[in-house]
From TrEMBL:
<dbReference type="GO" id="GO:0000725">
    <property type="term" value="P:recombinational repair"/>
</dbReference>
<protein>
    <recommendedName>
        <fullName>DNA 3'-5' helicase</fullName>
        <ecNumber>5.6.2.4</ecNumber>
    </recommendedName>
</protein>
<dbReference type="Pfam" id="PF00580">
    <property type="entry name" value="UvrD-helicase"/>
</dbReference>
<dbReference type="GO" id="GO:0005524">
    <property type="term" value="F:ATP binding"/>
</dbReference>
<dbReference type="InterPro" id="IPR027417">
    <property type="entry name" value="P-loop_NTPase"/>
</dbReference>
<keyword id="KW-0067">ATP-binding</keyword>
<dbReference type="GO" id="GO:0016887">
    <property type="term" value="F:ATP hydrolysis activity"/>
</dbReference>
<dbReference type="InterPro" id="IPR000212">
    <property type="entry name" value="DNA_helicase_UvrD/REP"/>
</dbReference>
<dbReference type="InterPro" id="IPR014016">
    <property type="entry name" value="UvrD-like_ATP-bd"/>
</dbReference>
<dbReference type="Pfam" id="PF13361">
    <property type="entry name" value="UvrD_C"/>
</dbReference>
<dbReference type="InterPro" id="IPR014017">
    <property type="entry name" value="DNA_helicase_UvrD-like_C"/>
</dbReference>
<feature type="domain" description="UvrD-like helicase ATP-binding">
    <location>
        <begin position="240"/>
        <end position="509"/>
    </location>
</feature>
<dbReference type="GO" id="GO:0043138">
    <property type="term" value="F:3'-5' DNA helicase activity"/>
</dbReference>
<dbReference type="GO" id="GO:0003677">
    <property type="term" value="F:DNA binding"/>
</dbReference>
<keyword id="KW-0378">Hydrolase</keyword>
<keyword id="KW-0413">Isomerase</keyword>
<comment type="similarity">
    <text>Belongs to the helicase family. UvrD subfamily.</text>
</comment>
Length: 697
């Protein structure tokens, strides 16, 4: 029976085809199991650059190009185009097997040949060439074949390499890009290539190459599997791994391990694959968790898409961390009554008033969370000796006694009323787990690790025994959007020597990424392991438009331009559900939704779940944007005194350290929002612009 693979580039193309054409493609290819390499459905192409290319009829107007092996029955659909364009595509390109990785490559041979002649003439008079510092033997070892080696030797400037990305084989362009960026051949191999096989690969064995190319080809087993791929083409592709990601997923660790990386580098993809691998090994159930229900739902959807075997999927339990804490809590207690945020503030305020304390409600609440709960302080004596690193306001022994009295009153009143907070539920669940001789999970996998609090980390540490491969976490402290600070060492999670970093952004264009990184210029950000995190080296290999950034005299003028921008995007063929609008406040969400309604633009508010079923522009707060992505994104209201809002920033005179942390958190929040854009980003304000935008001058 014939087996069909789908090239990753066509998955993106398929999502952009008109619905009628998509249906014709699906109908044709679901019958592919009836096709053999000699079948009548596949036709040879006269003057094809590669004799293994075949055409398949989609309709009178549309044709598909299929890579057919000389032996075997594994085929790969490369593209679907109008009749003449499809045959022209086949006459320019050929398939090959990368000598270093053994993976399949598709190149535009005609474009390489056309460019090489011009580049060679320019290089004759150039004082130096781009890769003079790299030996031919090193380039060959990294997988460059003779044609691309000759092309590389003619390059004199990195802009020439950028221009060649569209027609060079992807793996070979990656190698050249890394070398041009200043990496050594050894560093390029470590980051971008698979393990070297000294025996090499058979360049004519396409079937074996396709099997090795899970980072490029989605293999479908039968019509049902094929239809699932086409129902979720972009989502399906996001579950496939780059070699650097795969090495992190497949490694064995003698304890907790972590992966870091900038936005769009595939950390979530890595966590899903890691959970899958651990579940396949079958040592015990796997808890996959994160800090919000929205992200947990997204992880659950990804796991269902990735994990086909029901028995393996049942071993992966996806819960956000508070949900897990509540589950453990309710195994021993009745369903808790939880104090709302306002009720907590009222209780703190009554304590401040009754005790006539010189501290604000915010200060006491954060002292309780960040010192007392974080360090498991249980008495006045312990509090007097507790570390207060990062708490900018110093306290003498008398002041500490006053603070402890307030905290004691706060906790005593909770016990008297029989009420809880999310933090105290987490603390109680941790206590219950630590009393057990057996833990509920063998492995814990954590996504968006930077936004978990110390009490949540202690809970997760107690959820699994301390054994090899016990905890795997992924995160980026540059994307921290809540006021949580943690030292992993202090909560019993040691990752030193078991950390890896992802640098290649797969979501955002280079222009959007560079602009967004500018928002964090000069910021010193911790790495959760008593060191500093660096974002240097994070890059995108996709080129696109520069962000559109503009101010307006009034809010009305800004919203009028927003409507114009959204209409322009939709008129160019971008679906409404591929567009997002991010703002800082819920109030502005309501304003934008109303404005879009007046203009007749379909819109939906982000309320905690994804909007995949809605053919509408998604409007939400910057916090709601976390974990989502859009082809086009407008970030509106980036205005002075609104980004950041004064209510989110501790006054410097009250606590200078908290003021710096709050400001950094708000800056990171804007960074997170802007990096949700894949292709186009529009940023606007009215009146004075946010001080965060001054770093972009």
């Amino acid at each position: 029976m014939a087996r069909l693979g789908i090239d990753k580039d066509f998955l993106h193309e398929f999502a952009k085809l008109e619905k009628q054409v998509q249906e014709r493609v699906s109908q044709t290819l679901t019958k592919f199991d009836q096709v053999s390499h000699a079948g009548a459905h596949l036709e040879k192409i006269a003057n094809a650059r590669d004799p293994r290319f075949r055409s398949i009829r989609i309709s009178d107007f549309w044709r598909g190009i299929v890579l057919a092996p000389e032996s075997g029955d594994s085929y790969t659909l490369l593209t679907v185009l109008p009749h003449d364009d499809a045959y022209a595509w086949a006459k320019r390109r050929k398939a090959s097997v990368n000598a270093a990785t053994g993976r399949i490559e598709i190149r535009d041979v005609a474009a390489v040949e056309d460019s090489l002649s011009g580049l060679s003439r320019l290089a004759e008079t150039a004082p130096s060439r781009l890769f003079d510092h790299v030996k031919d033997s090193q380039l060959r070892q990294l997988g460059l074949d003779e044609q691309i080696l000759a092309f590389a030797r003619a390059l004199t400037d990195s802009t020439q390499l950028d221009a060649a990305k569209s027609f060079l084989p992807g793996n070979q362009w990656d190698v050249l890009f890394g070398l041009a960026a200043g990496y050594t051949p050894e560093q390029v191999w470590a980051e971008l290539a698979a393990e070297v096989n000294d025996t090499g690969f058979d360049p004519d064995d396409l079937e074996a190459a396709v099997e090795r190319s899970s980072d490029r080809v989605v293999l479908a087993d039968g019509p049902e599997d094929l239809m699932a791929v086409f129902r979720h083409p972009l989502a399906t592709w996001r579950i496939y791994l780059h070699p650097v990601q795969r090495s992190a997923v497949e490694a064995s660790y003698n304890g907790p391990a972590r992966v870091t990386g900038g936005p769009g580098t595939g950390k979530t993809v890595v966590t899903m694959h890691r959970a899958h691998q651990l579940a396949v090994n079958g040592a015990g159930p796997v808890l996959m968790t994160t800090f919000t229900s929205t992200l947990a739902e997204s992880l659950g959807t990804g796991v269902k898409l990735l994990v086909e075997e029901p028995e393996v999927r049942e071993r992966i339990h996806v819960h956000h961390v508070d949900q897990f804490a509540n589950r453990i809590f309710r195994e021993h207690h009745e369903s808790p009554t939880i104090l709302t945020t306002d009720e907590q503030r009222q209780l703190w305020q009554s304590i401040v008033t009754d005790l006539e304390l010189p501290f604000s409600v915010n200060f006491l609440a954060e002292e309780w969370r960040q010192v007392v709960l974080a360090q498991r302080v249980g008495s006045a004596e312990q509090y007097l000796g507790a570390k207060r690193d990062g708490r900018g306001r110093g306290l003498g022994s008398r002041q500490r006694a006053q603070v402890w009295q307030a905290i004691w009153e706060f906790e005593s009143e909770q016990r008297r009323r029989g009420v809880w907070t999310h933090e105290t539920i987490c603390v109680e669940a941790t206590r219950l787990l630590e009393q057990r001789t057996e833990r509920p999970y063998r492995h814990v996998v954590v996504d968006e690790a930077q936004d978990l609090s110390p009490v949540q980390w202690r809970l997760l540490r107690a959820a699994a025994p301390e054994l090899p491969d016990d905890i795997f976490l992924a995160g980026d402290t540059h994307q921290r959007i809540y006021n949580n600070r943690v030292s992993l060492r202090e909560v019993g999670i040691r990752v030193t020597g078991r950390s890896s970093r992802l640098n290649v952004n797969y979501r955002t264009t280079a222009e959007i990424l560079a602009w967004s990184l500018g928002l964090l210029r000069g910021e010193t950000i911790d790495d959760m392991d008593e060191g500093l995190e660096a974002i240097a080296g994070c890059r995108s290999e996709v080129r696109g438009k520069h962000p559109w950034v503009r101010g307006f005299p009034t809010r009305a003028a800004e919203l009028e331009q927003l409507v114009t921008t959204l209409r322009e995007w939709i008129d160019t063929g971008i679906a409404p559900d591929e567009i997002g609008v991010a703002v800082r406040s819920n109030k502005l969400v309501e304003t934008v939704v109303a404005e879009l309604g007046k203009a007749g633009i379909p819109r939906v508010k982000l309320l905690g779940g994804t909007t995949e079923e809605e053919n509408a522009v998604a409007v939400g707060t910057m916090h709601r944007m976390k974990g989502l992505e859009f082809r086009c994104l407008a970030v509106v209201g980036v205005t002075e005194h609104q980004v950041p809002p004064p209510s989110a920033i501790t006054p410097a005179e009250e606590d200078a350290s908290a003021h710096r942390r709050d400001t950094q958190r708000e800056r990171c929040l804007l960074f997170v929002a802007c990096t949700r854009a894949r292709e186009q980003l529009a940023v606007s304000w009215h009146g004075g612009k946010s001080p965060f935008l001054h770093t972009q001058n």
